[in-house]
Queue: 4 jobs
Job 1
Amino acid sequence: MKRPLALLALFYCLGIILSNLLRINFWVIMCIGLTIVFAANLLKKHDYIFFAFVLFATLLIGVLSLKNSCTLSNTHIVNFAYPGAWCSLSGFIDSFPEPKDKHIEFIFRLKEAQIEKYKWRCCGRVLVRTEVRQKLNYGDNLMLIGNLQPPPALVPIRGSYKNFLARKGIYLVMRVKDPRQIILKPGKRGNKLVGYSFWLRSKVEQAFSRFLKSVPAGILSAMVLGQKHNIPWLVNDSMVKAGTVHILVVSGFNVGIVAFMANLLFKIMRIPRRGRIILTLACLVIYCFLTGASNPVVRATIMGIIFLSAYLLKKQPDIYNSLSTAVVFILIINPQQVFDIGFQLSFASVFAIVCLYPKLKKLIRLDTCKIKIWRFFCEGLLVSFSAWLGTLWIIAYNFHIIAPVTVLANVFIVPLASIITLCGFTLAVFGLVCPALANLFSFPVSFLINLLLSLNAAIIKVPFAYFYL
Amino acid sequence: MISLTPEEKKVILFLLCLAFCGLAMSNLIKINSKVEKAIYPQVHLTKVDLNKVSLGELVRLRCVSEKLARRIIEHRDFHQEFASLEELKDIKGIGEYRYERLKEVFFVQ
């Protein structure tokens, strides 16, 4: 077997999907699993049978993982709070407080709760929406007083907002309108590295909005930092229609740029090779936190770490194995992510490119082509076509749209977006270090973003560019 | 002297190009203010002109329901045009909350 890890990851995923359909008790499956492991131990001399048992056991681990993640602790706030309950919660801010239309939104990790006169230690996470314009940061210790409500079930795509939050372990929402409902307590909680990453993110966002107008700043924030809250509705809509909305998400390309920039910086600082790689790995982890550790970034970071580690150990990395490691890593932390559209799109597109692109390239004998520009164009077209084929069914099922223009659009949009991302990173670095130069760099960045928007708007006007199902 | 790889040399060239482009654009804006249109995204790329959008386009955009799109167009036809975005509030079905949402989508020239 060439890639056992890929097969194990596949069975683990299948187990999670199967778990959603099975209505069997956790402990019954646990007993079956242990029996399988015992049988595998007895039959370990027969390689094929042993591996078949291992695969089956992995499938059952997938089933059990999801069931376990859906089981809430006895002390979870959901077990005590009822809709409309007026309660006082103690804990800390567990996410970056994000400004929305008229309010600020953050995730609050609970430590203690009080409903009426009963007070107890509890756990769980609550989504807090506050209209109070108070400066709040990740890790701040707070006491919140207010009503707990279940989240509203509105969202345009398949599966509701309620399910989306449930996948993140959030079952309750609290609205805070009065400043007296927020009491800031002394001390800081949470991970220090995450705290510093969020601080850096806000500094970079400030730099973008200082040197660029609101629209280019919003688009650059999305492309470099993965923060989509300032994207105009029409821009997002036209990118969905052209199938180019993925450029507004932080992906492997960004992680690659960070690795390259960090490596270059450490090289200039004359740090030896081994130290340079370790520091670059640390930068990748910080960038992962900085962008909010969404699924595509975690995937790209893990793959980057594997590739750099292989480089450190002077071994040849395998893309399928690194992709499988990323799948397993994300799903072990939260098995419910398998139902997340971002997770599905990220892995399906990378898998499709890795798997289909070389085959398609061989099929049309692209290597024999001697005109360099034509070959470059065809390669772009094939990568775009592979990714489109891989994600077509997910997009059609969830967003009810099929956009054939995507294949052509990405040939032009992706190189342009890559240059913008590169410029964005340059602007971010110089914005923090040398504002005078950053001001100079802001003009080409703005021009390129304008070009991107104009090109995208023109592409969706092509006949039969997209159609709704 | 530090030895640079071809990739590192490319980075330096990239930064130099960016600086030259920045200088050129900054200078062009000072000479001719029309150049700004080519550099900064114009409002029609990020928002829909409420006085120019057709019913078909409005329906295709899917930002409002078909029923509401008809009401918006009827209101515009009756008053000849929208003088300001605030007029959206006069249309049945657009309250304060929806108006705040639509403000992000439309503009009036």
Note: Chain B has two domains: 1-40, 48-107.
Job 2
Amino acid sequence: MSVLVYTESEQGKYKKSAFEVASYGSALAEKMGTGVSAIAFNAEDAGALGNYGVGKVLQVSDASFESFTAAKYAKAIAAAARQENATVVVLSSSANSKYLAPLLAVELEAGYASNVIALPDDVSSFKVKRNAFTNKAYAFTSISSDIKLVGVSNNSFGVTEKGGSATVESFAPDASADGVSVDGQDKAAGKVTIADADIVVSGGRGLKGPENWNMVEELADVLGAATACSKPVSDMGWRPHSEHVGQTGKPVASNLYIAIGISGAIQHLAGINASKVKVVINTDPEAPFFKAADYGVVGDAFSVVPQLIEKLKAFKAAG
Amino acid sequence: MKILVCISHVPDTTSKINFAEGDTKFDANGVQFVINPNDEFGLTRAMWFKEKQGASVDVINVGGAETEPTLRKALAIGADKAIRVNTEAKDGYQVAGELAKVAQDGGYDLIIGGRESIDYNGGMVPGMIAAMMGASFINNCIGLEVDGSSVTAIREIDGGKETVSTSLPLVVGGQKGIVEESDLRIPNMRGIMMARQKPLEVVEPSGTAVKSASVQFEKPAPKGAVKLVDPENLDELISLLHNEAKVI
Ligand SMILES: Cc1cc2nc3c(=O)[nH]c(=O)nc-3n(C[C@H](O)[C@H](O)[C@H](O)COP(=O)(O)OP(=O)(O)OC[C@H]3O[C@@H](n4cnc5c(N)ncnc54)[C@H](O)[C@@H]3O)c2cc1C
Ligand SMILES: Nc1ncnc2c1ncn2[C@@H]1O[C@H](COP(=O)(O)O)[C@@H](O)[C@H]1O
């Protein structure tokens, strides 16, 4: 019996979610009275997970894992789970983790709960709290299979530093191709993604046109935030599909979500409600978003946002 | 090409969500059910394959008789035949098992589902079907072309997209983008009339394993009132975000 966590990295660096799943896995292992190991692919500082309670890291150093394909990764994680005798496998809620999780579940004949936001109260009934109905409610799901697969919702559990150290073992899973090959990628380099961002700045139809997105990007730059948009904005082609958030778009679970010129339709709110703190900037005090937000500014984005950028720059400069 | 589109029957996106029986069951009272939006995009792409490449398109749901109006709507949009696996959907694993069996026995080449259903947000059924059938799997699919048995597709990834290639048999988790919003079809009178004549087969479940159960529900605590900041005093907003919310 043990817990295995799948920790994601990008260009050799662990993602923040890697430390979060490590923290979750380690707290869970403690409850179960067992240990936690991790599988990491081409991570430079593999042992860094020790700080979050991981005892052993299975380090895969193999260039054929540079490009992500779900079946190949699922097979490798399953092999690690078998070697470690894992009864629980923990992963994140990134698009890639959600892609491979169902394949891994079938491989391990494991029940899978996604969007999990807390530890199970007791490990025998293994009932986990998860976001459901697109953040309109929580479901408590109990997993009854021998092996259990838990997908932790980003930014829900947090990161706990423990100051421990981990042993690093090399691990060489089968890396044969999986039937789907990646021919090319089109990804904004050096930009924070919505899934990984602590802060998301989002614009709606109130911004009138794509030419006005400069200020949204500048505000995002100052805050180190990702940019997002409402559905009509991506439908009209003002912004790419990958920025559309909401019930039918990408889910947002950031620490701070800033909505500019977005009315706050139920389908929009559902998808972003898992964010901790919400700020709305809108000319219309009756906009439904004000009922869902923590902080609000009733005002014209074209005057509020540039001012906010200047003030934030001053605030950042003052440290 | 034989296409099977998996249709999840979910509360309309505007629905208020309530629970019954001591918060142990979803309360369907007064809720309008629709085709899961992600599946509607996939179904529309399937209609394109039907019209342009002569594919056959069947739709399927695992659920009780209450889901039949949703399947009829898919028939009205243009699917040839509907199948309902007559059992309560308990978890993704069980549903995927039933769907994989029908897909395999029926010799389907392309199985289209949605990235996730907007009710339980499992995000697992299509991937599980693929793994159970030994078919290829593409999730978050926002573009799909089939030429003979070779497939090229576009997949949304965090922060962008990628182009992938594979071959049939294939399972797809679709979403908005696989067709555009403006391509979605509202069933017309003729479609609705024709749907009444189309076959809706009810098949008994094979009884696949269930590995989890949603046993209790809870609604989020009501939100406190918003704190309004004067647009002429944005320093206060920065101070609140820094000192009170501690997010910047
Ligand atoms: C099945 C279905 C699924 C959907 N899924 C999603 C989804 O996933 N995500 C999503 O976002 N939507 C979704 N929608 C659409 C949703 O219902 C709304 O139509 C949409 O969110 C509105 O976008 P908006 O707020 O940008 O635009 P609008 O509703 O037009 O709001 C614009 C806002 O900008 C404000 N404004 C105008 N000028 C200014 C200014 N100068 N400064 C500041 N504010 C200004 C206005 O007061 C208004 O509140 C879905 C709808 C359906 C039917
Ligand atoms: N009961 C069901 N019957 C048919 N298809 C389903 C069912 N449940 C889920 N699906 C399909 O699987 C996709 C993902 O659902 P889920 O894994 O439940 O989030 C949906 O978009 C549907 O295409």
Note: The mean pLDDT of chain A is 96.
Job 3
Amino acid sequence: MVREIKKILILFLFFYILVLFETIISPFFPLLFLFVILINLFEAPQGKMGIFSALIGGFFLEVFSQKFFGFYCLILICISFFIKMIIKRVIELPSFLK
Amino acid sequence: MKEKIFCLFLLVFVFVFLNFFSVKIKNFFYYFSSPFQSTILETKNFLANFFYTFTKKKHLIEENEKLKKQIYQLMVDKERLYQLERENEILKKALKIQSQNSFEFFSSQFVSKIFDSPDKILIKGGKRDGIKKGDPVITPEKVLVGRVEETFENFSLVSLISQKDFAFVGKVLNKEKIQGVVKGKGNGKVLLEKIPLFDNLKEGDVIITSILGGIFPEGLLVGEVKKIEKSDLEPFQKAQISPFFKKEKLNYLFVIIKW
């Protein structure tokens, strides 16, 4: 449990720094989207970190955009579930990820 | 199953709560983040200038020569303006007219760009500083940047003049009879429209704001005419404008609170 909370806090901090860089350097390259997708792709299908990353990433995108709270979160959560579903049903996972 | 339904309800509740206090939450994050963003911006500008010096050395020499010539011309113009100003003051005194040029500014600074809106920026200064929706935003060189669209407690969201459907009346400097509508087209593009075909508009003409419409004060610099589009089938000509400000180089700004 403590390990999970630690991971979430690190993710929160990492996404916050990422979003700050993005708002100054390139707000139109979806770096945050990319990271959320990558976390979901490389995580075990039972893992919950992908969903947390979608929530945290979505939250920061909403803070620094004009969309209402929930817009990007919902999009990212849908993407996360979709990736997990595809991985569960279609792709044969290597043993270390199972 | 019950756990999942509970999580869903909790999520919906959190989103409703966040939207209810969205202005305050956003203001808090902007307030907390602005020092970090300033540091990132300064570092980025420093690095960009550093590499620009190396890569565009030849271009810089040419630009330097061109600017030197412009400085001499401006010195002559300045002297002429000084004489005119003095003459103007004397005439105003004789006619007992008071000066009308009394803007009230708030000194602000660029904070960040906005996701999903390439033609909007966030600046320092908000409701607490007397900034309100619709206030014009300019650079220290009196170049028009845009208009305040939304105000938070300590920050304001600014629509740039290139924002889609942003429109105001503009006119050509030194050819004040030529007036048209300056319209934002999104992604940094600005057009000057509704100029009659017979008006002698040229590439390189400088566009300034007009008091007509009451959106902006008179005489703020807007941009330079880049390309003119004429068609015999249409009663008006259009011109592409290159705005004088560069979004990537925005730093210190002024909000005109009273004009």
Note: The interface with chain B takes residues 20-25, 27-28, 61-70, 73 of chain A (CB under 8 Å).
Job 4
Amino acid sequence: MSSIPVGKGIPVDHVVDNTAEHPGERAPLVLNMHEFNDVTTTVCRVAESRRVPMAWYVAFVFSLGLLGFLGFCIAYLFATGVGVWGLNNPVMWAFDITNFVFWVGIGHAGTLISAILFLFRQKWRTGINRFAEAMTIFAVICAGIFPGIHVGRVWVIYWVFPIPNQMEMWPQFRSPLLWDVFAVSTYFTVSLLFWYTGMVPDLATLRDRARGKIRQIGYGLFALGWRGSNRHWHRYERAYLLLAALSTPLVLSVHSVVSFDFAVSQLPGWHTTIFPPYFVAGAIFSGFAMVVTLAVPARELFGLKDLITLRHLDNMNKIILVTGSMVGYAYSIEFFIAWYSGAMYEKFAFLNRAFGQYWWAYFIMVSCNVITPQLFWFKRIRTSIWGMFILSLIVNIGMWFERFVIIVSSLANDFLPTSWDVFIPTWVDIGTMIGSFGLFMTLFLLFCRYLPMIAMAEVKAVMPEADPHHDDHASDAKDEEGGANS
Amino acid sequence: MSHAALDAGRFDLSSQNLTLGAPASLLSRVLVIIGVVLLIVSGMMAWGTDDLAMVSKSYLVSFMWILAISLGGLFFTFVQHLTHAGWSVAVRRPAEVLAANLAWIWIFFLPIVFMWLRGDLDALFIWADMEHLRAHNPEEADVVAKKEAYLNTGFFFTRAVAYFVTWAILGTFFYRMSLKQDSEGGSRITDLLQKVSAPAALLFGLTVTFAAFDWLMSLSPAWFSTIFGVYFFAGTCTAGFSAMILICVYIQRSGRMKGLITSEHYQDLGKLLFAFGMVFWAYIGFSQYMLIWYGNIPEETGWFLSRQVGDWSLLSLALLAGHFIIPFLCLISRWPKRYPLFLMVGAVWMIIFAWLDLYWLVMPVIPEDVYTATSYTEFADAHENASTHLSTPINWSLFLGMACCYFGITLGRLRRHPLLPERDPRLKESLSFENI
């Protein structure tokens, strides 16, 4: 299927900027490709070439190093106990849960792109969905580590699952921490299925193109006998639609349940009704920032600029602006209602966040999440590679601090001033956090190297050549996109 | 008019097909007359009433309902521009007309201003007379006194003016510009509307939130919930999208827009109603209820407790079933959304439940003994006869009167101009789009 001869492509002379869209026409989502085979070659080249860019090796070795350090920190934690962290009474949750929420949030962009943007017929999603979904999987793996290692007696971690046992001992079903176990594991399972289902046709392409026996068998095993027949495609598309519909509630439910961890309590700063949608918006915000952070170097490094175009990046930056504004809305409403409630504890919790001992964290949070993303109102910034890269990093930092502020500032200064304390992270806290980036990056780099980083089959479907009437209108560029069935 | 880009043979874009005929004009007038008569009757029933609180709240319910419909139309309109949507051009005009109603909707707010001038505002908003509140319920007054900087009549009406001005400008702007494009053509206006839609979204979010705080949440002034604005926003989607579907079906039943609004468009409108008007509403409602129930803090639970005693428990459950579960099951499949008559029944159902939802938000009063009762059972027993007063005639005369006036005026406006933005550059995309 990779070399179907198609009609004459639109004559293009190496277009770089496709961000402008004249109403009535649709801007091209794939640039400088004259036929389907160009897409296949561009994407497969990464997985097939024997030599990868030096930068990949450097990044991989660095990530492996961090991963090793993560292993060391965890081993040290297991051997010594949770006391190696800076936790105290009352701050019994800090970096571990912050990292957990941070990583779960990062995962959200993948599901949003693959499910919700699919249902909204946002065709540009095809350029970025594959690796955003991959990111989801890896981020959830990173997230899963933290609740696992903070329980103290890690050897009985399986008790979080309701497994029948002769002690008749069950987890507390009324605890949102248990709901988390279900929410996150469902999320992981469905995301994995979605990712894999979407990848089957592309794996088959890699299999068909493979030269060596090992590669053929390797990709062939996972391509599940895909032959690209009409019936295959038909079923594939049904399955894809159904998975999208089933994943859509998950986009909302996972981070809602994570927000319940805090919001069902009575702690000021945690107990507030806007938490579920606010956490979801924040998760998508941070997730998209991470996609931009990774997409910018990846498209440079692997020559994917014609598939992940400036338009894709521009659109993602717009979503960052929208969700960042939602987060800003939630911050303001929380603050307003804390005053409006007339409850002294509510008011204190928020004033303490902004002006108390963690004022600097709050300051970082607001400036990174609300103030700097406003620069994305300007198209010049949205389409500037360096501009968006730096801003996306800032958002990542801001969103990590948001969780830190919510979790630690509310715990450290609760109702009883005599029990107040300060949380100071130890090197193990920091090492585990940084190490988790090593795990994430290692998995991501392996994915880039060995799997189809872009959904080739889906990208081809949004090219003008996929329109059955493409040839009829080859001379009339106006009719290229408009409707698929003119 | 030039429709060179369109395949003239396939789509009937004659003015005959694009404008409502004389029957619509008659219907529009009849509706307005019936509406005015009903409102006058309601006014007579209300005159000299000894329960001004009941009457004014009932009025507020129906006012918020027509407001929600209009805001839903505005939301739909600017979101289409914000996302550069192509599919929706054929059904955008009804939404624009609903949004344009925001230019005069403040007139229906005047009775509340009138109450203030008469010094009766505290019948509706108990915080408006703090001395009375203090004499009556000192505990609540202590809490409310802390919010006087926000909840005072001067600031309250200043904010109201700000909301109405913002909405009137936005609603009129999107409507007028779209009409202007009908004669001007080209893409200049589309570009302009796309630019404006992003700040419009910000203004919309803030005004809707604070209007919901002011006109709905502050009815129980001691109570607070950060998600409340989002909850009302979900209600505007329910009401607005339902109204759009009803208008589209009406237009086509009158033999207009033949072949222009297809089952594809109905399916998409149905999907939006399903996603925002039911599922999102339920998600927000659940988030609010679950967190307050679980946290179980007396300052917050009173609001729900007053809605789960006596008859109110039935209405609460009816809302759960009627606003979410039943329509969810009915509209989840593909065919009901593509079958205009079925979808119309769904839209009528949902628009009524949008009203009931507002009734449920506005009418209950948090009883004073909610803070003093020693147990839930004691409280529930004491209020087991609490009535929703849903069958009180004035509820229905106000609802029908307001609905007739609103849809009469809407229809009158709809009749004056083409039923779709006929020179929108994305019209072709909309007319030929299919759900694959």
Note: Residues 73 and 95 of chain B are 4 Å apart (CA to CA).
